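Attaching the record inline, Q. Sequence:
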Amino acid sequence: MTTKKRQISDQDIAQNDVSEIAGDANKINEISSNKIIEFENDTKGGTEMLQHEAKELNLNIQHQLKLFKQDLLKKFDQLKAQLDSSQKEYIELKVLVGAEINSIIEDLAILSKELKADVSELSSKHKLNLTKTLKRSKENTLEVWKKVIPHKSLNSKDATTVIN
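Structure, as predicted:
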């Protein structure tokens, strides 16, 4: 009779242990879910920041192009005012227009270099943001994994009881 009571008592203890482990697993699951939601919110924030910077850069480029166009129109108006009908003046005009076009090409080359630098900077910021996010994700995963590892000492029969 005492052997049966002891077996029942051992079963009750095992059931209590399994219940505790199941409760711990539920807590770990809840923590993991919260970490995932936090991770998603962090990622969205970084993406929104990069989108905002890209919009600002686009507005800056549009403004520079508008100023460039205004400057070009002013220079053409100056050329029209200076234009006479002699052959010598046409040659001077040709040289002046060639110089202006070369100046425009140089300005476009500089603008192109600036755009490449800005795109490179945005890419590096995005890469850095992704690296930080992945590192945080890895740390959170390892943290949750470490919480789960101590519960692996159960034998397979107890483990199947916890799963059911």
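The first helix runs from residue 2 to 82. The helical segments are 2-82, 87-148, 156-163.

More tomorrow.
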